[in-house]
Amino acid sequence: MRGYHKRPEETAQALKDGWLHTGDVGVLDEDGYLRIVDRMKDMIIRGGENIYPQEIEHAVHAHPAVLEAAVVGRPHPVMGEEPVAFVVLKEGALRDEDELVAFLTQRIAKFKLPTSVTFIDEVPKNPLGKFDKPRLRATVASTSASATGPDEEAP
């Protein structure tokens, strides 16, 4: 890669000392294979703990009523950030934040549990069809002063 077209600042951040810094976060498994677990810019830091939204998303997707889910960090005055989930349910499924959180409690650590679940009709996507997490982060940042309840509609 030579750089981003007409974006010198982003090129300078990505290309350092002959290396391409992708922003991906990976782990090596016991067999030495690299597994990409998330993106640095998506990582949530809550009270000094690193939380990978993709881990929470996988747990939410395991629920039989869930069609899509996206998790982002919401600013928090004491903890730094807190995870919040945007969930699209399958047709006919009932909105039940308490039941979903109880389901997640069996699958992920307590500090990773979303502090709120917002049920939406569709997760916003970028032109490539990927979840538009910057848009979701902007939404929660603008509403961080007020709690987002499960019945509120978001983007």
UniProtKB/TrEMBL annotation:
This is AMP-binding enzyme C-terminal domain-containing protein. Residues 138-148 have a biased composition (Low complexity). It comes from the Bacteria. The lineage of its organism: Bacteria, Bacillati, Actinomycetota, Actinomycetes, Kitasatosporales. PANTHER family: ACYL-ACTIVATING ENZYME, BUTANOATE--COA LIGASE AAE1-RELATED. Keywords: Fatty acid metabolism, Ligase, Lipid metabolism. Pfam families: AMP-binding_C. Residues 132-155 are annotated as: Disordered. It comes from Streptomyces prasinosporus. The keyword Protein transport does not apply. Residues 55-130 form the AMP-binding enzyme C-terminal domain. Gene3D superfamilies: 3.30.300.30, N-terminal domain of ligase-like (3.40.50.12780). Belongs to the ATP-dependent AMP-binding enzyme family.
